[in-house]
Design goal:
This protein has a single domain, classed as OB fold (Dihydrolipoamide Acetyltransferase, E2P), CATH 2.40.50. Helices cover 26% and strands 44% of the residues. The longest helix has 20 residues. The protein has 3 helices and 8 strands, in the order H-E-H-H-E-E-E-E-E-E-E. The strands form 2 sheets. Strands 2-3-4-8-5 form a 5-stranded mixed β-barrel. Strands 6-7 form a two-stranded antiparallel ribbon.
């Protein structure tokens, strides 16, 4: 192997490892609910169907069901998906959130979502 190829390989491996470490983990709601402390303030990805949805003026909350359980997702900017929508959401797990005076327990503070 030529020296330039070896150098490229030596530089590429740590860069790839860094990129993979930065990717949020896709988990199930059941795993989050079984051990919420493990996921506290960690960025995760969830996929599922919206079962309830409340919002106005680009803020709101919705409940997602991924087949293993249900979890509330707080949206602070960007709108709330409608009931029945298939969604993939990225956010941080938080021990409890309040929205319009109601507490929702362990939830996800959403960074972004996309409809599937």
């Amino acid at each position: 192997m030529r020296r330039s190829h070896k150098l490229a390989l030596v530089l590429a491996v740590p860069a790839l490892a860094g990129l993979l470490a930065a990717c949020p983990q896709r988990v199930t709601i059941a795993k989050i609910k079984q051990d919420p402390g493990r996921y506290h303030d960690k960025e995760v990805v969830l996929r599922g169907q919206v079962t309830q949805s409340f919002g106005a003026l680009d803020q709101g909350i919705y409940e997602i069901d991924d087949g293993t359980g249900r979890l509330w997702v707080l949206v602070e900017d960007g709108g709330v998906p409608r009931k029945g929508a298939e969604v993939e959401t990225l956010g941080r797990v938080v021990p409890g959130i309040s929205f319009q005076g109601r507490d929702y327990g362990t939830s996800l503070r959403e960074k972004k979502h996309r409809l599937r």
